[in-house]
Amino acid sequence: MAFAATALCAVMLVDPGAAPPAQADAQADCEAQFWAKPAATISTAEDRDQMLCQVGYEKPALGPWAEDPNRPLNVATTPEERLWWDACGHPVRRGALGGLWANYDDGHGVAGNGHGTGDNAAVDGWEYTPIDLLEMKDGTPVTTPDDWWNERRPEIFEAVQEELYGKIPDRSLWPDITWELGEITTGTANGVAYVERTVAGNIDTSSYPELRNTPRIFGTLRVPQASYDAGTEVPVVIVFGGTQNWSNLGPQGWGIFAFANNELQPDSGGANLSSYIIGLINKGQWRTPDDWGTLAAWSWGVSRLIDFFDEPTGFVGVDADRIGLQGHSRYGKATIVAAAYDARIKAAYTSSSGSLGAHMNRRHYGQELENDGDYAGNTGESREYHWMAGNYFKWMGSLVDDPENPGVGLVENGTYKPRKLELMSVDGHSLVALAAPRVVYITGGNAGDAWADPRGMYLAGANATPVYNLVGVDGLVVPPGTEFTSGPCESIGGTPPFDQAFIDGYIGFRRQNAGHTATPGWPSFIEASRKILDFAPFSDATSVEAGTKVSSEKWKVEGLTGPTPISIVGGEYQTRGGWSSEPGVIENGYNIKVRHTSSCSADAPMVTTLKVGDDVYTFTSITAADSSCDAEGPEK
Fold this sequence. Notes:
ten-stranded mixed sheet; five-stranded mixed sheet; globular; alpha+beta; 11 helices
């Protein structure tokens, strides 16, 4: 059958009460085809199509599923259902924007054949292009922590924003936020008495009074009553969801903040993308391809919460230098994005984040960047595009088109894979690496969680490990001889075994013998985070001048059992003499300070890792948003 391309830019949006705009062909300027401003009744499909017009993407006409020559072989269903299943119970879908089928190849040939994952060249006959995190785009090797912080990390972070998630708006566009604390209530749960109150960040909308929906940063804070009454600040984990995980955190003496993220920006597209916080910044206009998506907007809300915890309007009992973040599924994606964007998040639990989260997106297995939608109840994949910047649409489709079928690659012609996302300069391991050397804990499930691709998430952690090692900590540690999963319905290569947490390093991984859930992973997340949340002797230094020496406060060392070795990566330390970067020995009673040269990039971190015996402590500075280095030194 013939597969032809359809010009999406010819779609017309109807503004109620106004005459329709003149027809325009696919090459015309989008402003001549779409109303200058999205109406309150705009649908998700219409909003998405306007963005496709901006990026110049033409949607291929793919035809019926059953007649698609690329359809997987091992599926069982009736053609009209448009949600098929393979013998392992995996959902098999086709993406309407690029024609990519969900893939579940395994070594036994039981799963639906989607023509290869791309990370097993001997099996697939092709291989996706790896991205070396310790090599600049121009091929220059990254060999020192300074290379990472001042060169490679800013390069990766810029690409992550431009190619996938969008840029946080310039601070000059940020609205004022007035913080309000709710009345204190008390109670006891899981054997721990608590103090609870709401926290509301009321956002000023006077810059755009026509905004349809007023956003706010809102949630419920709960901390142990004993620490609150003593005036002690404790670690707090911000969660996307409710306070049910107090059962895990409260007994540890930690707090929880239940973030109501949908009050800041709903988890939907269409008219909501010209309202709430995104619409306030854009003044009700269409997003441009570089503009932030919902994941980045939620991360901005988390960052503003940390601002508040650092300088609250009253005592709230939160240590802003010991903040964790947790989210599951789409909120697992939001969690790793927020950790990449803000270095003050010290521990991130990204549960079943899958595609566009802590996951290798080049690897074709389960959910992918371009195959959500085009199935019953989700026609035309309009449910999830809002997570991303519009630029991510550029990665839809096969890398090499079939000449006779524009916009479509055919397996029979060798053009179906690889996909255009081969051209991305970043991937899921890039997100994890941006969080180094902080804790990132990645989890997935059994066959019931195959859509999230547990092996792909494991690889994101493993592939980010060289960066963690470079900046002074262990990344993902899997002991030699560990037996990986295998067998029917398991991805080729597998993962470390079920129900065993690998948390010796600062990247953790656990795969539960359960489905799409975060619950089993909580105890190991807490254990993994102890190394960074239990004790933080050095407060973050924020808004510092670029390219200048920044020192921590003094820390008086106690609790050692005798003379103890000390070493440092990415800075210097001072005890009873001058500054040194060489290994040494300390004892109880020593006062230690740490210093480094701040990042030359605006709003960017520099982190020093100090090792005392087997324990590691970090000192972080964040360069001011209006400061950077020129060729001759710092520039304000």
